[in-house]
Amino acid sequence: MKVIKRNGEIVPFESEKIYHAITKAMSETELGVDLFMAGKIAEEIYHISKGRVEPLNIEEVQDLVENSLMDKKRFDVAKRYIIYRSERNKERNKMWEMTELQKDIYEKKYRFENESFGEFLDRVSGGNLYIRKLIQQKKFSPAGRILAHRGLNEKGKKVCYSNCFVNTPPKDNLESIFEVARDIARTYSMGGGVGFTLENLRPRGSSVNNSANETTGAVSFMDLYSLTTGLIGQSGRRGALMLALPIGHPDIEEFIDVKSDLDKVNFANISIMITDDFMRAVESDEDWKLHFQVESTGEIIEKTVSAKRLFRKIAENNWKMAEPGMLFWDRIQGYHLNSEVEYFVYSAVNPCAEKALVEDGSCLLASFNLSEYINHAFTDSATFDKESFEKDIFEVVRYMDDLLEEGIEYLPLEGHKQVARDYRQLGIGIMGIADMFIKMGIKYGDINSIIMMDDIVNLLINKSIQASSLLAKERGSYPKYSDKVLESKFLQSVAWDDTIEMVSRYGLRNSELLSIAPNGSISTMFGVSGGIEPIFALSHNRRSESLGDGEDVNYKVYSQIVRDYMEFAGITKESELPEYFVTSHDIEYQDRIKFQGIVQRNVDSAISSTVNLPNSATVEDVERIYTLAWKHNLKGITVYRDGCMREGILTIDKPKASDLELVEEDCNT
Questions:
Q1: Per DSSP, which regions of 201-345 are E strands?
Q2: Which pLDDT does position 164 carry in this prediction?
Q3: 3-state secondary structure (DSSP) of residue 590
Q4: Is the bond leading into 324 cis (omega within 30 degrees of zero)?
Q5: Helices (H), 383-446
Q6: 168-218: per-residue pLDDT in tens?
Q7: 376 backbone φψ class: left, alpha, beta (φ>0; ψ -120 to 50)
Q8: Residue 225: what pLDDT?
Q9: What crossing angle do the helices spanning 276-283 and 619-631 adopt, rounded to 10°?
């Protein structure tokens, strides 16, 4: 005999639960508990259910309890039971407490039309009560495209659930170059952000068989893709684009300088694919060869430059313009679950660089809010609730795999659909790290924070792999799965013995599992720090074009954790905060990079991360950051110097050198 839960799941009928609910209601009345009557009602409902062809649902069971109590003249108990049902329903649909900004984000980015908060939770969770509760408790959130889009295709919307895509890069011909523009426009129109490389395009000055005689080069087409990105909106926000070029391409110097022209490539992020050989050449002050062979003609274009001078050019532009970002490509290609699988080759990264993907790859993103797993916050007995975290990981991996299956048909391009079927990529990340440390009384970046993060993220990757392996046992491995996964340096470095045993026995349902996105809007809506970032400031302004109907809107935002601690400790001044309340500008970049390196060791994909520097930072500081990041095995790094020529989305109350508008890099929210 069965009963239908609110999420549609059919489970065994349990008379004991009815009995306990009735006795609880009776205990709150003057007449008290009548065990015989409670048992009799439970038995009656059991027999009613047994006589039904179709199982009762929970609401029908509760209606029967109410009617039975009233039939037996226990109106007092019926009243308490009705109140109990109402309170439980209110609790299930209780709205988050939100500031004006948080409410703006929820209502303008994620809420569909006039749906209630309970309806929002139901839509996003898809009726999964476990996940619904995690979202309501702010312990977990799927990424923005899931929050905004799930369930809308049934209402006639053409939208997808994936935030990030790596599209097939342009081939070295005009037809392909413009086909790529068409494909990214289609991807943007359905809500996705896109990355791809320009490595196939012949460099400036190469011969072409048309009236131009020679090409304007790879960089000249960046504005085509940038303008396409600026034109195509995603629910009130521009598209998001990452353009990348290998360090060995002959146009690399022009690529590095492209953002020095404030009128060019304003709607794309740019990054360089850096090799270990290049970094070693920089260290040894050697020459560096730039090389390209035109496939159609056999023409070879080569030139030799100083590796150290090229490295300095990258650092100077980053110091001045906050771009290009650095992608340590050998580490990206060599440290993940499929690194030993010959046919698995990453093509590029998504717009915020937390996700490397194969050509036409896409990924569903989500994040755990670690700050909500702290028991006894702000006290000496504060602990991280590993038991709950472990249990939640298994449920989240299953939920994300369900979402992936549901969303494949909504992906923008046929190539996206096929690759999603073949590889089933997930990108589960974290947020609220800085808040977690404060609740524990730990300073971000010190040795205790590093030890704690290593422990937590290692737990996350092992339990995620185990959950995916159990899903493979139940549903089958992803079609392109290979036992070569067991030989990967990544798995050998981070996996426990029982994790490896499970993968060996069952395989994996998903080719990729962890990816740490910046989750800017979602972390702000939750009132916590984003990604692995420290608190940006104890208070700051936030400019968001996408919330302002085309005009910039500035909000004053005070960190929630600061308000919470002040209330707990009974203090009113920021000067009274303990020393472990540190911001991004208080943390030495050496500690910041060391911290990220430990996290990256346990993450099979990548981490979107920005090292914030004061205005006084030098070009040499940027060079040292790059070198240190490479030596600590980071997969990528971005530097933002306060007061540089490109204004960031987060600002403290200081004037900037330029009021240049930037596309909001909210590629995962």
A1: 241-246, 269-274, 287-293, 300-306, 325-328
A2: 93
A3: helix
A4: yes
A5: 386-407, 414-423, 433-440
A6: 999 999 999 999 999 999 999 999 999 999 999 999 988 776 655 688 899
A7: left
A8: 97
A9: 130
Is residue 282 classed as helix, strand or coil in its secondary structure? helix
46/48 Cα distance (integer angstroms) = 6
Catalogue the E-assigned strands of 37-86.
56-57
Q: Which helix (H) or strand (E) holds 21?
A: helix 15-26
CA 146-150-156 angle, to 5 degrees, is: 135
CB atoms within 10 A of CB 121: 21
pLDDT band at 536 (very low <50, low <70, confident <90, very high): confident
Q: Which of 20, 43, 109 is nearest to 544 (CA)?
A: 109
Whole-structure pTM value:
0.86
Quote the Cα angle for 322-327-332, to 5°.
155
Residues 6+ apart with CB under 8 A from 211: none
Answer yes or no: are the C-beta atoms of 284 and 291 closer than 8 Å: no
Helices 447-475 and 497-506, packing angle to 10 deg: 20
Q: What are the helix (H) ranges across 273-385?
A: 276-283, 307-321, 329-334
Q: State phi, psi for 289 to the nearest 5 degrees.
A: -90, 130
- Could you list the beta-strand ranges (E) of 458-544: 539-543
Q: Going edge to edge, which strands form the sheet with 56-57? A: 10-12, 2-4, 56-57
User: Comparing C-alpha atoms, which of 366, 369, 370 is closest to residue 398?
Assistant: 366
- The single residue listed with the structure tokens 């340590």 is 328
Q: Give CA–CA dist 425/364, Å, rounded.
A: 7
Q: Which residues contact 613 (CB under 8 A, 6 or more apart)?
A: 589, 621, 622, 639, 640, 641, 642
Tokens of 105: 């984000």
Residue 665 pLDDT grade (very low, low, confident, very high; cuts 50, 70, 90): very low
Q: Hey, what amino acid is at 295? A: E
State the SS3 of 130-195: HHHHHHHCCCEEECHHHHHHCCCHHHCCCCCCCCEEECCCCCCCHHHHHHHHHHHHHHHHCCCEEE
Q: How far is Cα 252 from Cα 264, in angstroms, rounded to an integer? A: 16
DSSP assigned state of 143: -
* Structure tokens given for 650: 């987060």
In whole angstroms, what is the distance from residue 16 CA to residue 542 CA? 52
What is the DSSP code (8-state) at residue 55? P
612: tokens are 């914030």
> Euclidean distance between the first and final Cα of the chain, in Å?
43
Strands (E), 397-538: 426-431
Report the alpha-carbon angle 615-623-658, nearest 5: 35
Q: Measure the CA–CA gap between 46 and 61, rounded to whole angstroms.
A: 9
- State what percent of residues in the chain have pLDDT above 90: 70
Q: What is the number of helices (H) and of strands (E) in the chain?
A: 24, 22
* pLDDT per position as a tens digit, 30-59: 888 889 898 889 888 888 888 887 888 888
